[in-house]
Prior knowledge:
The protein has 69 residues and is mostly loops. The protein has one domain. It is globular. It starts with a strand and ends in a 15-residue tail after the last strand. The mean pLDDT is 95.
Amino acid sequence: MQTIQTGQCGLCTHFGESHHSDKALVSIITTKQAxxxxxxxxxxxxxxxxxxKVSPISGCDGFTAAASA
Length: 69
Ligand code: SF4
């Protein structure tokens, strides 16, 4: 497990956006810890059509904090 910082995908509202109530994703937001092997789709409008897959420690300037992050 790795600590996830603000600005990284794991705490972004777009990480796994189509299913962000999944237990694994909620757990990242509440514990700020994630398995680095986890990959999920970025739902950012500029990335979603490309089906970009990111890890919890990835990041970009489109970061938007998840509601409870
Ligand atoms: S790539 Fe950017 S917009 Fe997508 S989940 Fe990561 S930080 Fe958020």
